[in-house]
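ugh ok so i messed up the first submission bc i forgot one of the chains. this is the corrected input, ALL of the components this time, i swear. 361 residues overall. if the numbers dont match what u have on ur side tell me asap before i send this to the collaborators (the ones from the other lab, u know who)
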Amino acid sequence: MKLNESQMDVLKEIGNIGAGNAATSLSNMLSKRIEMNVPEVSLLDYNDIIDSIGGAESIVVGVLIGFEGDIDGVILFLLKKEFVHLILNSLIGTELKNFEEVSEIEMSALSEISNIMVSSYVNSISSLTNMNINVTVPSLNIDMSGALLDSVTAEFSEIADKAVFIKEKYYCMNETVYSYMLLLPSMPSLKILLNKFGIYT
Amino acid sequence: MRTIVTVGISDMKIVKEHEILISYALGSCVGICIIDCVAQIAGMAHIMLSYNKNGDKKEIFKYADTGITEMVRQMEKLGGIKSRMTAKIAGGAKMFDIKGSSTIGSIGEKNIAAVKDTLQKLRIRLIAEDVGQNYGRTIMFDSTNGNLTIKSFGKEEKVI
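and heres the new structure output, hopefully the right one now
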């Protein structure tokens, strides 16, 4: 099964639904005033995603979270240095100099923040579609963005050569930071999800 | 000046002596480097998945089986001889450890197995490998001497 254009559009719309919620929960957690734009949701292939993040060799934090229940799949959260610094500085007051020096405590703080953002994202999809969806324990790795991405897109590439890519822009204390999220449902789940939105395959 | 040739994802390139093949940020993907030192030709393929089960003709280099087979065929066309060819491979990492329904965790492992299986079927000797673990690799293959240099985040560069 390869997705056609109208199915892609629905997927894009689903990507849009949860993004606002995720940003609100971030703002609450950091107890900082965070302003955000309307998220940019697009369907991109591997190379476009890499370009958008800053090249295959740019070092980022990747958090992979699975979801299961009525539908299953994964969400990959990619965080660049500026965003990671904002989170760590607000939560535990540390200064992030470089990715080589991220401590265990900082890693778990990042896992937790990602978990809460992804959960609120999934929750909004869940309540809108009236489905039961739970998220799994997050897995975190710091590495080249290309390497973090290929394992995740490889599986999905059997379904579509593009993935739902959600880029959010936040303003906080005169700084602009971005978060990047990829939504990748499994093949059977994709059908269920599309059906819920009135698209039958 | 030595020419550097970039091999993208699901891609393959063949070069002559003095040129360098490079592939960036392999995660669960595997880079397969084959050289015939006598004919002075070297090839690199960057595969993403193990077997081309559906017979995809558009993206043969996305898969280990069809990708390696086609690379070797093209190298032979350029004067390479299979019995002289040697291979080095890198990649196939498990970038995320996730429990549950996802099969993402095992893609790297499956890729490595398929690469080795295909090389064996083609009777091409695998002389060095740097595979598995949980980190990404940028690989550079020197067509002059067959050295494969591996760069990873937060690790010493190594040559196999």
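quick check: Residues 5 and 11 of chain A are 10 Å apart (CA to CA). that seems consistent at least. Residues 5-30 of chain A form the longest helix (26 residues).
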